[in-house]
Amino acid sequence: MTWSQFRWFCLSLMYVCIDKHAQSLHQSASCHLHRHYFASSPYMPSNPGEQYFMFTILASWLINQAGRPFEQPQEYDDPNATVSNILSELRAFGGQVDFPPSRLKAGSGEHVCYVLDRLAEEALKKKGFAWKKPKYPTEELEEESLVEDDAELTLSKVEEDMTEEPDDNEEENLIDLEALKARTSQNEANGSSKPDEILESNTDVAEWNLEVERVLPQLKVTVRADNKDWRIHVDQMHQHKDGIESSLKEAKGYLNKLQEDISKTLEKVTSREKYINKQLEHLVQDYRSAHAKLSQSREHYQQGSGGVTERTRVLSEISEDLEKVKQEMEERGSSMSDGAPLVKIKQSLTKLKQEVVQMDIRIGVVEHTILQAQLKEKSNMTRDMHATSIPEPAVGTY
């Protein structure tokens, strides 16, 4: 299907849907929607959010009108849940849903029009509405008969004799019927009196035939039928109606036969089902008792599983505490049995003794140095004292 065909299909479906809504909404105060509101087309402005919300409001209202309670969706509801509920109601009405729910989120298109059309139809059925037969306006029949498109009216058997195609300027050679009719009426008015004498023709037959052959293409009159004329559509409707009735008679026999076959088959299936249920009744009872025992066993198993889980958790906690105690005991035992710290202490003591001896030696050296310095200073002081005192000369000694 091309895009143009698809667009016209959506528009036509929208027309039908709006007509049904007009019948359903004629007593309610609701907003007026134009015929192309839910039709999807790139040539028309659209608002998907507004169209989707209006679609959900109309769908909920139509479902309520059809006799099924349905809560009106709000603006901030989940779109997936709202669309799913609408499609569920449509399936409950017997509607066929062979498209994904995401197609309705756009708020326009073929599937939106289809859903609204089916819901409007159910609402009209609930109200007992029925379409009336169309009333055609009475019009006077024209004197000229309408024929099919491109039908040609020719004189006697002219069309059978002509085999060549018409020229391009055929429309220019067509006879103006109105002018010809006016001219004929004028001639009749002017020549209303009868001739006094009998007129005799002096025309040659051969020349007359040549003249007829020459003007024959100009005598062709083409009357084109208007396709918009309602009479053509009425005839087509009657033809289609006759065809439908004839097909219905033939199909009705097959359908009745099919219904009888299905009824017989259903009776056989029902009787067979009753026989099987009767034969397997004791087995069904055994199965029910076994199923009840299985349910009890499952309950006991779940209870036991809960106790085992709790005890397993307690055991894991105790195991962790035990591992910590074992690790501490191992650390203390290794520290008690290991002689490395004692050796380190002995080595440290020996090193301290050596350092003490060295310090004693250094102290002795320092004390000796200080003593020498004191003695030297004392001797210097004594020498200075003797140097300051002047001795008396001994004269008599010499």
Describe the model.
The chain has helices at 3-24, 48-65, 79-92, 110-127, 158-161, 170-173, 177-190, 205-215, 230-279, 281-337, 340-388; strands at 152-153, 221-222. 66% of the residues lie in helices and 1% in strands. It has 11 helices and 2 strands. Among the domains are: 3-127, Actin-binding Protein, T-fimbrin, domain 1 (Orthogonal Bundle), CATH 1.10.418; 146-162 and 210-225, no CATH class; 229-279; 281-329. The longest helix is centred in the C-terminal third of the chain and has 57 residues, at 281-337. With 398 residues, it is an all-alpha fold. It has a two-stranded antiparallel ribbon.
Q: Helices, strands, pairings?
A:
Elements: H1 3-24, H2 48-65, H3 79-92, H4 110-127, E1 152-153, H5 158-161, H6 170-173, H7 177-190, H8 205-215, E2 221-222, H9 230-279, H10 281-337, H11 340-388
Antiparallel strand pairs: 1-2
Mean pLDDT over all positions? 75
What fraction, in percent, of the residue positions are helical?
Answer: 55-70%
* Oligomeric state as shown: single chain
Order of helices and strands: HHHHEHHHHEHHH
User: What is the CATH topology assignment of the domain at 3-127?
Assistant: Actin-binding Protein, T-fimbrin, domain 1
What characteristic shape results from the CA principal axes?
Answer: elongated
Write down how many β-strands occur, each being a DSSP E stretch of 2 or more residues: 2
CATH class of the domain at 3-127: Mainly Alpha
Number of helical runs? 11
Between the first and last Cα atoms, what is the distance in angstroms?
167 Å
The Cα radius of gyration reads: 62 Å
Which runs of at least 5 residues are low in confidence (pLDDT < 50)? 1-14, 23-30, 141-159, 161-175
Strand order of the largest sheet: 1-2
